[in-house]
Design a protein that fits this description.
Layout (H helix, E strand, L loop, with lengths): L10 H15 L8 H15 L4 H9 L4 H11 L11 H13 L4 E7 L5 H13 L7 E8 L2 H9 L1 E3 H4 L4 H7 E3 L5 E4 L1 H4 L2 E5 L12 E6 L8 H14 E9 L13 E4 L2 E3 L1
Parallel strand pairs: 1-2, 1-7, 2-6, 7-8
Antiparallel strand pairs: 3-5, 4-5, 8-10, 9-10
Helix pairs in contact: 2-4, 5-6
Bound molecules: S-adenosylmethionine (SAM).
Length: 270
């Protein structure tokens, strides 16, 4: 006799979940992700006191389960990030983009900011390059679909391990060591340059732009080609002439149609 295992995720259930996740977030869960989805959603199932994946799918498909969709996407997305990740973009920002700005207004969007390391690295780079930054009109918009990550980003508290790739001089200048050993808090002068907000890249965007730079790194890789193409077109419309799009170095725009000009790997100009 075959016993029913309540924590089993069947292929059919996995496919139904993939469809729901893709419809909401654009994330294309490929084959081979069954174990990850099962492990991460099993936690949600238990927290909600649901008996199996069918009950979970019924719940997220019901009006009562709307809120759960946010938690589900949260549980499934990969939030890996770090300070000054793909550091060449931050050097390019300092050495090229800032120099090209006419006037004293800078608008940058970190689209998929995860736990905040990317927008904080942008802010620190600007502060380093512009010692009189208070006389500039600088706004960094940092958005993500994950409420949990946004909460972390807003707090701006990072472990010693997370800040270990911030050069010591910058760490001393822009972070305060916390009394609870091993943690660092980003200084408010850095935080003040950033506005954190929930935004699903698949939805309508409330911002009008134009932006000087858009960072959309290491998220498009999870989207289907058509979704990437549409997104890149929307970024194009939101940038000023001469504005830059930075994507992850493992992404590139080679296989999609777009109007950007290639500058260097993972860097495009309108
Ligand atoms: C791997 S992290 C990348 C973080 C950062 N950009 C970097 O390169 O280090 C991907 C982020 O994309 C977010 N994400 C996934 N789908 C999204 C969507 N549809 N709209 C907005 N953010 C999304 C995830 O929540 C996650 O925080």
């Amino acid at each position: 006799m075959e016993l029913f295992n309540p924590s089993e995720l069947t292929q059919e259930q996995f496919e139904r979940i993939c469809k729901i996740v893709k419809g909401i977030s654009g994330i294309n869960l490929r084959e081979g992700k069954e174990a990850l989805v099962r492990a991460r959603l099993l936690k949600r199932l238990r927290q909600l006191g649901l008996k199996d994946f069918n009950s979970y799918i019924d719940y997220i498909s019901s009006p009562d389960g709307r809120q759960e969709i946010i938690h589900m996407v949260d549980a499934i997305t990969t939030n890996k990030t770090s300070f000054f990740r793909e550091s060449i973009h931050f050097e390019f920002l300092r050495k090229r983009v800032i120099k090209e700005i006419k006037g004293k207004r800078i608008r940058i969007w970190s689209a998929a900011c995860s736990s905040g390391e990317e927008p904080y690295s942008i802010a620190i780079s600007l502060m380093e390059e512009l010692p009189n930054i208070s006389s500039w009109d600088v706004k960094i918009l940092a958005t993500d679909i994950s409420l949990e990550m946004l909460q972390k980003a807003k707090k701006g508290i990072y472990s010693f391990e997370s800040v270990s790739n911030v050069p010591l001089e910058l760490r001393q200048k822009y972070f305060d060591p916390m009394r609870e050993g091993g943690y660092f808090q980003i200084k408010s002068k850095v935080k003040d340059l950033i506005h954190f907000a929930y935004l699903n890249l698949m939805d309508k965007w409330p911002m009008k732009g134009p932006f000087d730079v858009i960072f959309c790194r290491n998220v498009m890789i999870y989207f289907a080609k058509e979704t990437q193409q549409e997104l890149v077109g929307r970024f194009y419309n939101l940038l000023r002439e001469g504005g830059y799009l930075f994507v992850g170095h493992s992404e590139g725009l080679v296989s999609i149609r777009h109007n950007f000009k290639y500058v260097r790997p993972a860097t495009y100009i309108k």
